[in-house]
Amino acid sequence: MQSVTEPSISDELRQRYLSASRVLVLTGAGVSAESGVPTFRGGGNSSVWKGMPFDVISSARMVERNLPAVWEWFDYRRDLLQGLSPNRAHHEIAKWQDHFSEFTLVTQNVDGLHQRAGSRDVIELHGSIWRVRCTVCHARFEIHPAQPRVEACPDCSEPVRPDVVLFGEILPAGAFERAAAAAAECELCFVIGTSALVYPAAGLPEIAHAAGAFVCEVNPERTPLSDLCDVSLMGKAGEVLTLFSRLRSETV
Ligand code: OAD
Hints:
By secondary structure, the chain is an alpha/beta fold.
């Protein structure tokens, strides 16, 4: 039975957090909101870009029809990230990897902020804004914030595109399978800062729940997954996750 609580940790969640060995965390755009990264469905330019909803400009069809427009949108989003830093939520999640014996972080975010906070081996379901790939030979290349955008593939000179999963495209090979295997094995699953509208990512907490895991959502708003979750901590990720930091220090 689900309980919607103020952002405070119940005894049951406390006990589960402190005793769990296998933990899975799924994050979405909300985890980066306190860094200043706009969410997709929160309005503004990240929801509608030059009159185009984000799922139109961020689509496989748009890559075929107007690759320069897709680049313009991703350049805008990369520019937004310049000067932004990981927030308390990213840092707290990074600490969890050393707290649990088996820890899997799965993100839908492409901003790289989890890695900048120190998270290792992050499963990036939707790719990375800091990588490009060739539209012809599919070679992948890292791009750095200070570097001008790479226009053509260094290997074959064909146009490159962001190495991000767009609407109408499949996820990177193996990424979802790894995440789904960890979801099926975990005891505790956190769903943090996602509207849970985009599948297959939103299916991971469902897999965890079906396999018997305790599922905890962290989000200031309800989502379609809220009813499935055992606990909904309704608040901002940075504020809510800080409670876990205190919990660990109290019990050391
Ligand atoms: P959305 O923009 O759909 O949802 C962001 C969620 O974060 C909402 O549920 C907000 O309530 C919540 N939120 C806002 N501020 C928060 C905060 N400070 N702390 C915690 N939660 C907060 O973003 P995603 O769910 O990530 O895919 O969207 C999923 C996918 O849709 C994205 O990865 C992207 C997009 O299309 C692709 O680009 C393929």
